[in-house]
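fold-stage: in
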Amino acid sequence: MKKTIKTTVVIFFVCLGLFVFSACGLSEISQDTGLEDKINALQERVSGLETENGELNDKVTGLQTENKQLKERIEVFRHDGSADSIVYNLNYSTDEDYLIGLTDSVIGACVEVYGSNATAAAAGSGVIIHTDKDRNETYILTNSHVVTAKNGTAGRTQDTVYTKIEVRFFGTATTQRYAASLEARSDSWDDKNDLALLKVAYYGEDHHSVRLYTGALKYAQRVLAIGNGQNLGTSVCDGIISNPSVFFSDSGSLTGELIQITAGVNSGNSGGALFDMNGYLIGINTLKLVGSVARGATGNASTVNVFADNISFSLPVSNLIAFTSDKEFLELLETVS
């Protein structure tokens, strides 16, 4: 009997051991199966991420191609290959967008100029070339014939400067004008170069100065003329350089090398800005040939005995260097060559 009980107990524990061993084995198998499922899920996720990464790489490649095309398109407008253009780093999808962006970046520096005395008046244009907030000063370059009255056939003299000179900043009301004066220096007015330097109170950051380009210009280079054409307010016209250097003389007054352009220059545009496609000031719009006369902003003219159409001229910015001998003032200007 005791032997039977012992045998039974032994069998019981043997069975129990087998059961526990089997249970552990099944647990391990179950765990292995769950791990494999996780590995499979991770592999699928990795595969999905690789697919997404490939798609992103394709998009990046596409964007890089578009960016290259945009830069190549912008490069068409550039003449010196420099990287510090005002608008070079802006991305535009069309030439029209580029011109709009260029205009927005420089038009705040353009002003309308008005001169008058007891017997005469004139309307023209100007461009801000330096501002000094601390000293409350804004310097404006314009044509001398915009702020002076004709004095016989010998040209204008310092005594004929209009007694009242005003400027209107872009974006202000039509009737909102501010008193200006010729800068109190001996070289602030020049009949031969047809340049005058005005000074007015500082008006704000939106009306900033422009950078001056004094380097070489090219035939067919695109340009932008901004000014108070026909005294209708500030307007914009684009064109090309027909000839970067034309000698011109109008009988004792304006004499020297001019830039011939196709951009529309009319009465009122005199003194206005001529920009290149980098946003640099390259010239001051001065006159145009109409029929057999050369006319400036005030209507004063000298006969040149030719018939002409669509021929306008700008004074190159380099004339400013010859116009003023004030080295300290020239150092204040932002020039690019």
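fold-stage: in (second)
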Amino acid sequence: MRFWPHRFPLALLVCSVVMLGRVEPLGSQTPKDNPKPSAQSHKYVRPTDPSLYVGTEVCKTCHEDIYNTFATNPHFVTTIDSKLDAQKGPEWHGCEACHGPGKEHVEGGGDRTKIFTFKDVSPAESSARCLDCHQSSHEQSNYGRSAHLQSGVACIDCHSPHHAKDTQSLLRESSPKLCYTCHLDVRAQFVRPFHHRVNEGLMQCNDCHNPHGGFERHQLRTVAGQDQVCYKCHADKQGPFVYQHEAKIEGCEVCHTPHGSTNQRMLVQNQVNLLCISCHSLSTGALATPSFHNQANEYQACTLCHTAVHGSNSSNVFFTP
């Protein structure tokens, strides 16, 4: 192989041009390198100057009807100093704990532009006011990253501090009516013949879901051990079993429709054998159906023989519990 030394300067020049073309001047980073603050990153910083606050009694002189309602709900505890624990100071007290300092509002003759109103701001900004107190709660600690807030649902879309129909959680409407205002598809599922008894009042949506967010899909709750929330009621199906039905690894929804179904036991198929062979066939990794199971009438009800379908401690084919 022949050596061409006179070609080196040309090669070096080409490499230099390529490398220089990749250099970016300072301050020219793309948004990917220097992202803008997220819409969910709002944080309310409370002014601490006592002279900016007027106190709840002053608010009452104009807003007596709202004050009278406020006096009957859980937020009224903010007017009692002994109940505020470590949160001391006028910025945590009464009406101004949520609406901010009221001095300029009062001096302006009730000028609405001089005080914070929840109707005129983004969901993230209004929710930041609520989370400043409620974020320390285990129940609400994940709302900043919840599917509801990311979809533009603010705290005040579900809760009404002044005109609540539920005095304990200050809900705008009782459950499940409140949830149905958005989740119309789920409402339809709950009127199917076989369903969890939410409409009957024996269960609530938040028994299974945490509306304020969580780490599971669909904001589902979990039980001890981080297992599926279904086991909170259906503990006998949880195990552990010596012989575990591997379908449970994928979740209960592989076989069941959680809100409601036209099939018994809320199964996703109307025939048990069709549900079973959707996994137990030669084309899948699950144990194949034996050749003598020809799907004649006597083999169509798999659970007549495989009674312990969720798991067994005595039979590897789930004949006995």
